[in-house]
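Subject: Re: docking follow-up (pyridoxal-5'-phosphate)

Dear J.,

Thanks for your patience while I sorted out the input files. As discussed at Tuesday's group meeting, I've set up the holo structure prediction with pyridoxal-5'-phosphate included as the bound ligand rather than trying to dock it afterwards. The sequence and the ligand SMILES I used are pasted below, so you can double-check that they match what you have on your end before we go further.
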Amino acid sequence: MSKLRYERPIIRMLNSTITQKFGSSPGFKPFTHIDGMSVKELIADYGSPLFVVSERTLRQTYKAAYRAFSTRYPKVQFAWSYKTNYLGAVCQIFHQEGSWAEVVSRFEFEKALRNGVAGNKIIFNGPEKTEDDLRTAVQYGALIHIDHFDELNMLSMVAVELGVKPKVAIRVNMDTGVYPIWDRFGFNYESGQAMEAIQKIMTDGFLELVGLHCHIGTFMLSADAYRIATEKLSKLALHIAEHFGHSLSYLDLGGGFATKNTLRGAYLNGADAAPSFHDYAEAITDVLLNAGFQAGQLPTLILETGRALVDDAGYLLGSVIANKRLSDGRRATILDFGVNILFTAFWYEHTISTAQACGQYGEDAVLYGPLCMNIDVIREHIKLPPLNRGDQVVVHRVGAYNMTQWMQFITLRPNVVLLDMDGKPHLMRAAETLDDLVLNESIPEHLMELVH
Ligand SMILES: *Cc1c(COP(=O)(O)O)cnc(C)c1O
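The structure tokens for the complex came back this morning:
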């Protein structure tokens, strides 16, 4: 018997499997259906790439989130964060479930009105509100959340001019133990600036202070940060009750709850790292219930959760354009969707499944988009079974911020389909065409020679 040939051990850097103590699941289970509807059929009917949103998941997620808060606290109101996903059909689903609208610009405000939301159920946030925006918001009776002293002064002037007392809140920023602090928005708590703004509103008498607002960050992995935020807002509200005999009707804790997406470079998988709705709800309501509000004067708790309500409901379907070897031997797969429509690829290591049965053994690969730009990387490292040209993939949890932050760049935006409660597809935004792109362009007459 001859001796086995010696092979020297090698140490290889692990790039694409999960490098943490929970290990990874090696199975490559194809993801062939969304709510009972075939992925292949959707692509055949609506093209590739294609965004798909599940109405069933949207409603289930909303109900789970609302239940987590309303079973712990008697007065809860959600306001849908338009910038997270303002496709009309998505907004309508949240409004049907009972959400108000939370907007951060004039066009979002107008979109909420057009969606049929009453003015007094629109929360107008954000640092940029022109005098005309404020006048319009006041006329519709919107809840205006003031961001800075210049806005406070401008709104006071508008109120005097119109002879009304607008309902307002101030946005408060604070140290919640998560850094950096988002202190560019609103009035700072620790420095006394928030108190100064409150004092000014209460003594001027031009505005009716109905609430306090904060939005401490986004993708907050600490439920405890909300405990601290709630404590600080409650202290301000109790101070107002004590010193001005005025009780606020609401405290708005903003949004920022994390989803199960995995942040790029994170040690823990998103599913293991993200607090649940129950964790966030427990932190916030526990403080509110014990803060010392008089019986019957508990403020309504408003939440502007965006990401966590819509992320899971969104999918991006796409196809393989080509495979190639990079100079260092790595496999590269080029897909037909890029960072121009999947903006969150910059932040997340998105879970990506194949849409058809394929091999059991994976290989490290880089996933590129179709753009002729070096930044167009969908995943730096991923282990996937070899894919062939024409094979299809499904990107999971893309419902938040992609259908608003997408760019018209090199390629046009694709179709977006809603799967209703029965899994039946409805086109909710048609793919763009060249006509859409040039609609607002004009070419001066002296440059029209070739066009005529
Ligand atoms: C963006 C935003 C939200 C929603 O944040 P998510 O992180 O998506 O939950 C809520 N309130 C304000 C003021 C915002 O700017």
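A couple of observations from a first look. The chain has 13 helices and 20 strands. The two ends are 86 Å apart (CA to CA).

Let me know if you'd like me to rerun anything.

Best regards,
T.
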